[in-house]
Specification:
Chain B: GO terms for molecular function: metal ion binding. The structure holds 2 protein chains of 2 kinds. By secondary structure, chain A is of the alpha+beta class. Chain A is built from 8 helices and 7 strands, in the order ββαβββββααααααα. Chain A has 2 domains: 106 residues, Beta-grasp domain (Ubiquitin-like (UB roll)), CATH 3.10.20; 135 residues, Orthogonal Bundle (Fumarate Reductase Iron-sulfur Protein, Chain B, domain 2), CATH 1.10.1060. Chain A starts with 5 loop residues before the first strand and ends in a 5-residue tail after the last helix. Helices cover 79% and strands 0% of the residues of chain B. The longest helix of chain B has 32 residues. Classes of the chains: A alpha+beta, B mainly alpha.
């Protein structure tokens, strides 16, 4: 059928966190419906570049292989996305793979996304339900709200929105859109609402909400179609009101 | 509690619209009198100069807000890692232009204030003749046209992001409608601003 057809991959590699990046080209036999992950696996099986030199197999991260974990995010032909759902048939060739440089590169295509998880801790992106006794069932959530909130809960902390954001970089401490949208998710939850103020204070601190510059690249890039800019604007409203309450005082609970 | 960044960014957004944006509209409107001839313009600018406690008004409503907005704005602009070449979306281009129009305006406004307000403080009359003289130089005319367009753009687009920053426009539809509304603001103020510049260069008023 397509015997002998090869697909060329140009991979930006880096031997360690402080090593200089370099490009290496590989050729992989074409298989029907192959994705970037299967091509990387093929390269790992026979790590020989186009010059015929044997090399160390490129490193990358992967887990679920169905675009719900976010681990295999990388820059594919200039756009950050998940390697598992990047079908080679739909990509321009040669396929260029780069790490998401907004994050510290660990090795080759593997990056350290810790800053996102740190940000989730900072904004308290959870619902505290533990007590020394049974707290009983929480308030109910309307089905329509649940359906709406489900969209926000699709965030897989993949880092694509941070990569696309011009304000997330080494010169700024902006936490990026993903953790902000999680604040909206947990603040919308009937039980989570009880800690709304704490989360708002988390994003009103340095590196939080205010560092957004409205380039809106995040909402264009999110693989899950999460309305990130709507979340940010809604949080802008909530935090504006919160800041007035903090400053002037309020009996509003 | 609100961090320092939060307070500064909100203040930056607020000052850009409330004293500075309103001042821009007043300024361009006074300029527009030039289309009715030198006498009308001189009368309008004289009215502004004769306002009571002018220096207090200038310092509180113009100089301090503009200084803060400019200095903090330059800090914001240089924090961005622009990527409109990779992500060529409309809003990302606006993000890029907002920062570069801001940087250009720092230069333009510094020059413009030096040439007009400071010259007036040093004893030169600020009237139609002064502007006609400045704008008779084609290079300065181009510099002023770009400056006025940059200011009007920066204000219009800033008005859009002001509404997002304060949570006035939240939904995508609200933000789209406010995009259209601010485009209209941009077009109308551009006509006023650039129209006035050409009125100063109108040769039928020469040597008046």
């Amino acid at each position: 059928m397509s015997e002998g057809k090869k697909v060329r991959f140009i991979i930006t590699r880096q031997d360690g966190p402080n090593a200089a990046p370099y490009e290496e080209t590989f050729e992989v036999p074409y298989r029907q419906n192959m994705n970037v992950i299967s091509a990387l696996m093929e390269i790992r099986r026979t790590p020989v570049n186009v010059k015929g030199e044997e090399t160390a197999p490129p490193q990358w991260e992967m887990n679920c292989l169905e675009e719900v974990c976010g681990a295999c995010s990388m820059i594919i032909n200039g756009k950050p996305r998940q390697a598992c759902t990047a079908l080679v048939d739909k990509l321009e060739q040669p396929v260029r793979l780069e790490p998401m440089k907004t994050f510290p590169v660990v090795r080759d295509l593997a990056v350290d996304r810790s800053r996102m998880f740190d940000a989730l801790k900072k904004v308290k992106a959870w619902i505290p339900i533990d007590g020394t006794y049974d707290l009983g069932p929480g308030p109910r959530m309307a089905e329509t709200s649940r359906q709406w909130a489900y969209e926000l809960s699709k965030c897989m902390t993949c880092g694509v929105c941070l990569e696309a954001c011009p304000n997330v970089n080494s010169k700024s401490d902006f936490m990026g859109p993903a953790p902000l949208s999680q604040v909206r998710l947990f603040n919308a939850h009937p039980t989570g609402k009880m800690n709304k103020k704490e989360r708002l204070h988390g994003i009103m601190g340095d590196g939080g909400l205010a560092a957004c510059g409205n380039s809106q690249n995040c909402v264009q890039s999110c693989p899950k179609g999460i309305p990130l800019t709507t979340s940010i604007a809604a949080l802008n409203r909530d935090s504006a009101l919160q800041s007035f309450r903090d400053f002037f005082g309020s009996d509003h609970q | 509690m609100a961090g320092r960044d939060f307070v500064n960014r909100r203040l930056h957004s607020f000052l850009g619209v409330v004293p500075i944006g309103l001042f821009l509209i007043v300024h361009l409107t006074v300029n527009w009198f030039a289309t009715r001839g030198p006498d009308a313009f001189n009368k309008a600018s004289q009215f502004m100069e004769d306002l009571p406690y002018l220096l207090v008004l200038e310092i509180v409503l113009i100089y301090l807000p503009i200084l803060f907005h400019a200095i903090y704005g330059v800090y914001i602009a240089f924090q961005a890692k622009n990527n409109a070449n990779r992500y060529g979306y409309f809003r990302n281009w606006m993000f890029f232009l907002q920062r570069w129009s801001g940087i250009f305006l720092v230069i333009f406004i510094a020059w413009h204030v030096w040439e007009t307000r400071i010259a007036m403080a040093l004893g030169q009359a600020l009237d139609f003749g002064m502007m006609a003289d400045i704008l008779s130089n084609p290079a300065m005319l181009v510099f002023y046209i770009v400056g006025v367009l940059a200011a009007v753009f920066h204000f219009s687009n800033g008005l859009w992001s002001f509404m997002v920053t304060w949570g006035i426009t939240v939904s995508p539809r609200a933000q789209r409608i406010s995009t259209y509304a601010t485009v209209v603001v941009f077009i109308l103020l551009s006509i006023v601003g650039v129209g006035a510049l050409f009125a100063f260069t109108n040769s039928s008023y020469a040597f008046m």
